[in-house]
Automatic annotation (TrEMBL):
Residues 270-289 are annotated as: Disordered. This is ABC transporter ATP-binding protein. It comes from Azorhizobium oxalatiphilum. The lineage of its organism: Bacteria, Pseudomonadati, Pseudomonadota, Alphaproteobacteria, Hyphomicrobiales. Residues 15-264 form the ABC transporter domain. One of its GO terms (cellular component) is plasma membrane.
Length: 289
């Protein structure tokens, strides 16, 4: 797949990150990281463990506040905007470690993702309930059911989230983020801990969210077969700094990337799989062929 996002005008920037640095006391997690993401793009961030990938997503989602730099979304400076305000303007995310309400049903977990879309508030709640809350509730339920159908989790919609397999819980967390109807969705290792079949399914869902649902995606993922196959562009971090950035083939060929992953340049390709035809990326190629 790879290449430029289809149907996206050049320069249609959705997210603009400029010279973002992040420090925790004397530890510098990010150092002057800059990049932009276009509307409709599937943009991946890779790098060794401890490279600063999740810290960067936390800065974009508002969980962390950068020590220096600026983050712009649709031309608006959101550097100091609180996380709930960022969700309200269309930034959703999943987490490296599952963040579901384990005691709640799958359906209720996904409904939480639509909380910011509710129109009633403390002052208007009573009147709104009389006038339109029931209609709104039905509309929210319909949207949630669309997400449930898309991610093929109809059979567990009433199940308690904590009783599900790990792969299904990851899918439910993705469903909750999608239910927010985000313009930009941040996926932090969406395939971590999954078996091959689960990875193939998740890769297909991510591609469909991007191509059919029109969502712009920033993804952190360690499976290079998937990253290089489905991403439009890839950025590589190492020790909190950007060391490479471009289309998948360009990044694969970059000696700095090889050195960051293996510590030397004259070694076997770190991105080759033992059986290329069986990788999740290859499965996505076959599905989209």
């Amino acid at each position: 797949m790879g290449g430029e996002p289809s149907g996206v005008a050049a320069g249609a920037t959705l997210l603009d990150v400029r010279d973002v640095s992040l420090r925790f006391g004397g530890l510098r997690a990010l150092s002057e990281v800059s990049f932009s993401v276009e509307k409709g793009e599937l943009f991946s961030i890779i790098g060794p463990n401890g490279a600063g990938k999740t810290s960067l997503l936390n800065c974009i989602s508002g969980r962390y506040s950068p020590s220096e730099g600026r983050i712009g979304f649709e031309g608006r400076d959101i550097t100091r905007l609180k996380p709930n305000k960022r969700a309200a303007i269309g930034i959703g995310r999943t987490f490296q470690n599952l963040a579901l309400f384990h005691h709640m049903s799958v359906l209720d977990n996904i409904m939480v993702g639509r909380h910011h879309l509710l129109k009633n508030n403390f002052l208007t709640g009573a009147l709104y309930w009389i006038g339109g809350a029931q209609k709104e509730e039905l509309e929210h339920r319909r949207k949630v059911e669309d997400v449930i159908d898309f991610l093929d989790i109809q059979h567990v919609r009433k199940a308690t989230a904590g009783t599900l397999s790990y792969g299904l819980r990851k899918r439910v967390e993705l469903a909750r983020a999608v239910a927010l109807e985000p313009k930009l969705i941040l996926l932090d290792e969406p395939m971590a801990g999954m078996n091959l079949e689960e990875k193939e399914d998740m890769a297909r869902y991510i591609v469909d969210l991007n191509e059919e649902w029109g969502m712009t995606i920033i993804m952190i993922e360690h499976d290079m077969g998937v990253v290089m196959d489905i991403s439009h562009r890839v950025m590589v971090l190492d020790f909190g700094r950007r060391i490479a950035h471009g289309q998948p083939a360009e990044v694969l060929a970059d000696p700095h990337v090889r050195k960051a992953y293996l510590g030397e340049e004259d070694v076997e390709d770190p991105f080759e799989q033992e059986a290329p035809a069986a990788t999740p990326g290859a499965a996505v190629r076959q599905l989209s062929a």
